[in-house]
Design brief:
Shape: globular
Order of helices and strands: HHHHHHEEEEEEEEHHHHEEHEE
Distance between the termini: 51 Å
Strand content: 15-25%
Number of domains: 1
Structural class: alpha+beta
CATH superfamily: Butyryl-CoA Dehydrogenase, subunit A, domain 2
CATH architecture: Beta Barrel
Largest sheet: 4 strands, mixed
CATH topology: Butyryl-CoA Dehydrogenase, subunit A, domain 2
CATH class: Mainly Beta
Length: about 350
Amino acid sequence: MHDMSFALTDDQKALKAAVAELCKQYAPAYWQELDAKREYPDALVNDLTKAGYLAVLIPQEYGGAGLGIMEGALILEEINRSGGNAGACHAQKYIMGTVLRHGSEQQKNMYLPKIASGELRLQAFGVTEPNAGSDTTKLQTTALRKGDKYVVNGQKMFISRVLQSDLMLLLARTTSVDQVKKKTDGLSVFLIDIRHLKGKGLEVRPLKMMMNHSTNALFFDNMEIPADSLIGQEGKGFSYILDLPGRRAMVHREGGGLLDPARDLRQAHRHQPGGAVPHRQGAHGHRGRRSHAHQGGQDVRRGYPLRARGEHGQVPRLRGGHRGRQRLHRLPRRLRLRGGVRH
């Protein structure tokens, strides 16, 4: 019978404590300075790499720790919980899984030990395109075989950490969509060394986004890559990128790491001079108005008078009233309840 316990083991607790101790060196002022300069946290990522935390999922025979998805997720969670940004380094944990599961033995021996040691950094994942929307099968970047090379042409958008990576995992179409039986066929994955390609068929244009996330637009103009950059079988790349081990589990746990610092920050600011946060920002206001500025007792966007708040800043729920009745009548008859009786 499988063990269904969700309690952390002693080793997992020790791992979390060690990551937290490392991250203490990077106080909020460090992250604030990076955000102001829009720079990448190289110092933290280098320290995490030297400690082996970015290689926990790589098997021991390739220089990693050979641990599981849970340990990888705990590391990302603890980076965020300590006030850092795990998004700066999380991609390497699941991108390397494509090489591990579908790469040749030669590719594994060539890249995985160097990724584990930090000699090579794999943080870039080139999939998203401006004209494909959320349908990956419609991507237009092509990689056509010519002798012992592939020639890549096209464009990628919102590809993060390209300027901070040595390697990039690239998804491109090797067979035209009108020549395949299924639209998911004809896509291939390549692991390419981009250090010497920038300016030689690869143009990287940094994008200034709301978040400091080192995001870029990529342009490929007859970029030549070795044929042995291909991961697995040509045309099977779509299934390979869906087979990223533990990606969702790790990203979900990573997001969970933000909850504790967010709660602590809220508590710290709740009773600052000038009143509690709800009175100054509308954090406990009526749903749909939480993000709107309040001036002079009015909802600025709509001009509605704000309703009286309770003793602890809560807004009383709507009970009756013209707008409440309007919303009620919009519901299907089978869902209408008044005074506990279906109408």
